[in-house]
Amino acid sequence: SDIFTTLLGIVGIDTPKDRTIDGADIRPAFKGKAVKRKVPLFWRTHIAPEKSRAAMRIGDWKIVADETLTEFQLYEIEKDWQETTNLAKGKPEKLAEMKKKFMEVWKGIEAEGPREWWEGEPTKTSSRKPKKSAELGEGKDKSGDWPIVLGGTVTKSDFAYRLTSKGEAVALRKLDKPLSGTDRAAFKIDYQTAVDTVTKNAFFCFGDKPDNNSLIKVGTAIGKGTHEIFQGGWINVGRGTAKKAKFDTKQKFTAHIIIDLAKGVVILEVDKTRLEQKLPEDIKKVSYIGLYSKATSSDFSAIEVTK
């Protein structure tokens, strides 16, 4: 859009007022002067590698985000134009500054749309096999209600439970009677974020083994603006079934989950969104249900068995 804005400037025509024009008139650059921008240079593409789906540049600095908006890279372009040295860990204050602006621009793009590009499309489903993540270490249950906690800490909250972790975390309990054969069961759970940071997510999870790589996650990547179903660790977000949705990131979500072993599917209904995904062929039994989140704090209600 820089070309469009610049050409209008050359021929003396004002930019349209009935739409957002992000581009800047770059004629000052022809004289070696700085280009003034209302909106920073911003890129977003779904065909880029998973670790670099979006990027933003302000002056000498560039921030790069993965497809889940939870992992960021930081580069000082004038000194490192080939982007060989990630300064994210060494420059935490600069990273925080760039992340804040990045999310402002991202949210503006998401709000402006055109949203029909994704809201009118079928639910995104992938048949790719899940990637393996590192095993989670032992966590802590301070609520007294979760026999198995991995990767994080569960505490009591006004909501019921709060799951907190720096990485991935699960809290699990065994079903009184495992689901098997042609069993069908329905569950209800409420959840919401407990933080005001970029990374916000909350999921119900289930499986036959208390192992993060085999558990199915069903819920909401709140910061990403999607409801999702996927198997395994967070690295598999977007590799299962996902649907973009418009919601308040601070709202309470009520999710209804149906596990139907006879049909071999799991169904998620949350707000006005419905997702359905085939269960992996090796899941013949469900022994565990629980909570899952990644690098955040999330509040959950008790899990209700509704059918």
Topology (elements, then pairings):
Blueprint: H1 2-11, E1 41-44, E2 54-58, E3 61-65, E4 72-76, H2 92-112, H3 116-119, E5 124-125, E6 140-141, E7 148-150, E8 153-156, E9 161-164, E10 168-180, E11 184-193, E12 202-207, E13 216-221, E14 226-231, E15 241-244, E16 253-260, E17 265-270, E18 273-278, E19 285-294, E20 297-300, E21 304-305
Parallel strand pairs: 6-8
Antiparallel strand pairs: 1-2, 2-3, 3-4, 5-15, 7-10, 8-9, 9-20, 10-19, 11-16, 11-20, 11-21, 12-13, 12-19, 13-14, 14-15, 16-17, 17-18
Tell me what the structure shows.
The chain has 307 residues and is mostly beta strands. It has two domains: 118 residues, 2-Layer Sandwich (Arylsulfatase, C-terminal domain), CATH 3.30.1120; 179 residues, Sandwich (Jelly Rolls). Helices cover 11% and strands 37% of the residues. It is built from three helices and 21 strands. The strands form three sheets. Strands 6, 8, 9, 11, 16, 17, 18, 20 and 21 form a nine-stranded mixed beta sheet that branches. The protein has an eight-stranded antiparallel beta sheet with strand order 5-15-14-13-12-19-10-7, with no helix packed on it. Strand 13 and strand 14 form a beta hairpin. It is elongated, with a radius of gyration of 22 Å. About 3% of the residues have low confidence.
